[in-house]
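Please, structure for the following, as tokens.
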Amino acid sequence: MLVSSRTWHAGVLAAVSFEFFTGRRWQFIIHDDGSVDERARGQIERLLPGVRFVARAEAERRAAEFLSAHPKCLANRSRHNLFLKFFDAVAFAPHERFIVLDSDVLFFDRPQEILDWADSGRGECWFNEDTKETYCISRDQIEAALGIPLWSRVNSGLCLMHKPAVSLDLSERLLASFEGNAWHPQFFEQTLFALNASAFNQGGMLPRKYDINWGYLRCKGSVCRHYVGAFKHDLLYIEGAPTLLMKMAWPALRARLN
């Protein structure tokens, strides 16, 4: 998970909700975008015991080595913090399979599909399905330049990744082709996830109950909600946090009442 000084509080909620509804302990790796101070780091480490906190200075050293043979990847990584979500997650993941989770994704029920993927050992990549397709440039241009059919509407708020699916050579080609003329450069990171998974072509989109939602309320029966839009953090705390508290506290309260 990549966090900033503005998003780490929500990131802790996301991590806690994920552990609670999966019923498991996970090896969390929290990446600092460079704005998280020592006090906030201490709170993260206290609230998420056993977390691996990657400071920006450490990540810079690792990226310089990891991307040394891919100059476009290395240069673009320093231009937008969201690139850290793609390159640093791969560089620091200790196992062949790993999950990338945005700080604005809260869980409200058991994510059985994620647990099945984790337990199966399958070398597949799975994502939220976006409400619309948003890549750095049009699908047609990417496919024409790289010769790879892209999966539709990949969203990188929640990514179940198989490390061998990630090709730095392919990522370098994408950046070399479009770094100067991308329509939406802020979505390069999402495009990199989509491109690499599409080329590997094992996996796909999670069910719609892994909700991406622009509205005020989450969809009925949703396993999780990815909060998006201009007021996403307001909605996360106004709608998401109270719902999470109720769902986490109610089982314990019911047990006491019984």
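The chain has a mean pLDDT of 95. Strands lie at 2-3, 29-32, 52-54, 97-101, 105-107, 125-129, 154-162, 203-205, 210-213, 224-227.
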